[in-house]
Amino acid sequence: MQELETRIVDIDVENIRNILSSNGAEKVKVEDQINDIYDFEDGRLLSKKGYARIRTVNDRLNDKIVYFMTTKKMLSQERFKVMEENETIIDNKKMGEGIFKSLGLVLKESNKKYRESYKLHDCLIEIDINDKSFCPFPYLEIETSSEEKLEKVVTLLGYKLDDTTSKTIYDILAERGLFNKNNKGI
């Protein structure tokens, strides 16, 4: 599935929550995540801004643990990031790890994140707060299928499209001198 994705960094989390709430956004996720990023030993996926991932989600809304096995591939990074994403729920993390390893993939990194997600105007709006050792600032990720919907939500949140970026979180961290040399892509 293709999605348009953009980020807004250095957000005021409480202000965003208030705007979303006052505009009737539906809270669809409250979760703690562990994102295990896999690639081949030579880093060929990450070097092309793609990856394989196993995400462990502690779903606070439904009080359960869910495992997702995902591959992502960057299709375009012009005005918006366009990704091809393939994802499925797996019931056994070890089995997912085994599948990736049997394909020759190795664990490259593991990151922890708190995520709150909302649905509004056919957009998924996600507040991400990462482990400070990885990314010390909160940001929004907005995903949708059309530029018009994206612009509507960005404006509603008090921003302009010029405030958004298609850069990966790693690109943003590198610009700020916070880049971990082991991280290459997403």
TrEMBL record:
CDD domains: CYTH-like_AC_IV-like. It comes from the Bacteria. Pfam families: CYTH. Residues 1-175 form the CYTH domain. PANTHER family: CYTH DOMAIN-CONTAINING PROTEIN, SI:CH211-156B7.4. This is Adenylate cyclase, class 2. The lineage of its organism: Bacteria, Bacillati, Bacillota, Clostridia, Eubacteriales.
